[in-house]
Amino acid sequence: MNTLQIYDYFDAHTHFQPDYSSRIFAIQSFRAGIQVPDAPFYSIGIHPYDAQNPNCHNIDPATLAHDNPRVVAIGEIGLDFRFTESVPMQIQLFKNQLLTAQLYSLPVVIHCVKATEQTLAILQQADCRDFMFHGFNGSINNAKKVLSAGGFLSFGANLLTNTNLQEVFRQVAQSDITKILLESDEVEGVIPQLYDRGAELISATQQSFMLQIKQNFTTFYNL
Ligand SMILES: [Zn+2]
């Protein structure tokens, strides 16, 4: 997309309304059945938080992306095993929405908490390789599992302060820098700092790091 040339920073996942007159291009994420999407480009999905919400229960996932070019991804969707009572419904919703992503050839933004193995198994069963684990905050072992399944890893504000995560970031960059994304998620204004810290952690120049993240972002979102 040619209009992307005017942007320096790429925010792979945010819940804030993007300011497209700034230097940051962002993909806003909406919770289907909870929020009405109004961004020029967005991801949409039934969040595992909403697995038992009656408003979300009856949505046909295929309608989320139907004939709508503003939808650039399905998500965030996935599994959150902190909410044990809704796990069966989460799994069903996740699988149904992966079919939708496949139907419309859209990448998937994954929300995964305490469920890495199960999430990756379902992605593999669905033959889904276009996905990112958003807000990645896990171990290097889990990071490698995501990478070897073909996924991207998106890092948010925790990268600024969590030294374990910083080490994971370094190792991921060493193993495959084309799979790294950055995101603000629910922390407003954090993107320029994430770029600074990311470049610093891998001793890259700001310019080369910016180009790399842009390339990763446009590859993931097919923009
Ligand atoms: Zn989020």
Walkthrough of the structure:
There is one protein chain. The chain is of the alpha/beta class and 223 residues long. The chain has a single domain, classed as TIM Barrel (Alpha-Beta Barrel). The protein is built from nine helices and eight strands. It has an eight-stranded parallel sheet with strand order 1-2-3-4-5-6-7-8. β6, α5 and β7 form a beta-alpha-beta unit. α5 packs parallel to α7. The longest helix is centred in the middle third of the chain and has 17 residues. The protein is globular. The model has no long low-confidence stretch (mean pLDDT 95). Zinc ion binds next to loops.
Tell me briefly what this model is.
With 223 residues, the chain is α/β, with parallel strands linked by helices.
Q: Give the class from helix and strand content and strand pairing.
A: alpha/beta
Tell me the domain tally: 1
**Distinct small molecules bound, one entry per kind:** zinc ion
By DSSP, the count of extended strands is 8
| Widest sheet: strand ordering | 1-2-3-4-5-6-7-8
Largest sheet: 8 strands, parallel
Question: What is the succession of H and E elements?
Answer: EEEHHEHEHEHEHHEHH
Q: What is the CATH architecture term? A: Alpha-Beta Barrel
Strand content: 15-25%
Uncertain residue segments: none
Which CATH first-tier class would you pick?
Alpha Beta
Helical amount:
25-40%
Give the CATH H-level superfamily: Metal-dependent hydrolases
The CATH topology is what? Answer: TIM Barrel
Radius of gyration: 16 Å
